[in-house]
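Complex 181.
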Amino acid sequence: MKLESSRLLLKPPTEEDIPSIVAVASDWRVAEMVLVPHPYFPSHAQTWIEQARESWRDHGMGALAVFTRQGQAFVGAIGLKPTTVDGHASAGYWFCPSVWGRGFATEALRELVRYGFEVRKLQHIEAGHLLENPASGRVMEKVGMAHAVRVDLPHRDDPGVIVSGIQRCISAEEWEALKAA
Ligand SMILES: CC(C)(COP(=O)(O)OP(=O)(O)OC[C@H]1O[C@@H](n2cnc3c(N)ncnc32)[C@H](O)[C@@H]1OP(=O)(O)O)[C@@H](O)C(=O)NCCC(=O)NCCS
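Predicted structure with coenzyme A bound:
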């Protein structure tokens, strides 16, 4: 399994990637915006890699490590997982702060959404971000996730605290229309 865009290579993470994964996922600028444990240990990366393998085997989708095509540098992670609704999946991603602002997240998400609709024949792909993470919202908008709904959910570690976010989505029809435009 391997996806490619003009500058990036996306492939399931392996044990070889653990030091790079830990270095990026441990960075608080990344961890504060995503559902990764903090502090993040090599054992967390190992579990994530095993879950990715199972998900690719069982669902034909899962987590991918993202590398530059030129230089093969690890720059982040992205993934697609099925939701409870048939034909629906949700996307998530995080990238190394040293490469932010170069369009990598947008390029990787666009390729993953293409894979979801064109190869997996999904009907609907969604993604969510915290209210205080407009950069991620912009990435979703740029790949065509035009619908946005505000959601207030209990904090994963402290259900007494409410966390506000935005849920966005794109349908297979909207993806086809974007391609045709
Ligand atoms: C969010 C994240 C993935 C963006 O990665 P990236 O590679 O920098 O994204 P891109 O360069 O493709 O696009 C970023 C867009 O956000 C915009 N942006 C950046 N900061 C912004 C801000 N404070 N407000 C609004 N837009 C912002 C950029 O200008 C760019 O849009 P543009 O191309 O229209 O100018 C990255 O910052 C990250 O990994 N953050 C930590 C983890 C995370 O938030 N993951 C997503 C959880 S939902």
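Strands lie at 3-4, 8-11, 63-68, 74-82, 88-95, 124-130, 147-154, 162-171.
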